[in-house]
Design a protein that fits this description.
This protein is mainly α. The protein is 74% helix and 0% strand. It has a domain at 62-193: Tetracycline Repressor, domain 2, CATH 1.10.357.10. The protein contains 10 helices and no strands. α5 runs antiparallel to α10 (179-190). It is elongated, with a radius of gyration of 19 Å.
């Protein structure tokens, strides 16, 4: 007769995500996960696989929640440029926030830590970036069709520039103690939409 799990796998995955997000992949040991999740090593392996598998599942979970919200924000009916501007300013505010900036973005952190040598993590990072770039591109195409964005602007190139800006804001914000640095960069980039 099979034993029933004595823990909630969904809650354990969320807890692992939070630990990996705060400490990074390399700095988080299996012993740390056992202690933080409050479940045995064998249960972690049986439910999630090894540490790398668990990390990738946590990265997938992060993408499911953050990417969905972004798509919803950018696909609201009506004028599109205000939503794009709001999104960029929100990223800048989060990057400058004294508490939130220290963790940064889990995807951005993964890109910096694992992206160069971990193809599975790099694929997930790329997918997350596509989930930002595509709705940005769609919003900018809509803005151009509605006369909000000048005809001589390239919505694809602008979406890519904004993606790089958003990721850069997270990186700089994580290490900088000057909140004006990220806010000024965001506002300067937004002038390209005029």
């Amino acid at each position: 007769m099979a034993r029933t799990k004595e823990f909630d796998p969904d809650a354990a995955l969320q807890s692992a995500l939070e630990l990996f997000w705060r400490r990074g992949y390399e700095a988080t040991s299996m012993a740390d996960l056992v202690e933080h999740l409050g479940i045995g090593r064998a249960s972690i392996y049986a439910t999630f696989g090894n540490k790398h598998d668990l990390y990738l599942k946590a990265l997938d979970r992060y993408g499911e929640t953050s990417d969905t919200a972004l798509l919803r924000e950018l696909s609201q009916p009506g004028p599109a440029l205000p939503a794009v501007r709001t999104l960029v300013r929100r990223f800048a505010a989060e990057a400058a926030d004294e508490v939130r900036r220290l963790n940064g973005c889990f995807v951005t952190n993964t890109a910096a830590e694992l992206g160069p040598h971990d193809t599975a993590a790099a694929r997930r990072v790329e997918l997350s970036w596509q989930h930002i770039e595509m709705p940005l591109h769609s919003a900018l195409v809509r803005a151009q069709a509605q006369g909000e964005l000048p005809e001589d602007r390239d919505p694809r190139a602008l979406a890519r520039m904004l993606l790089v800006l958003l990721q850069g804001l997270r990186v700089v914000g994580k290490a900088s103690t000057d909140p004006a640095r990220v806010r000024d960069a965001a506002e300067q980039a937004l002038t390209l939409l005029d």
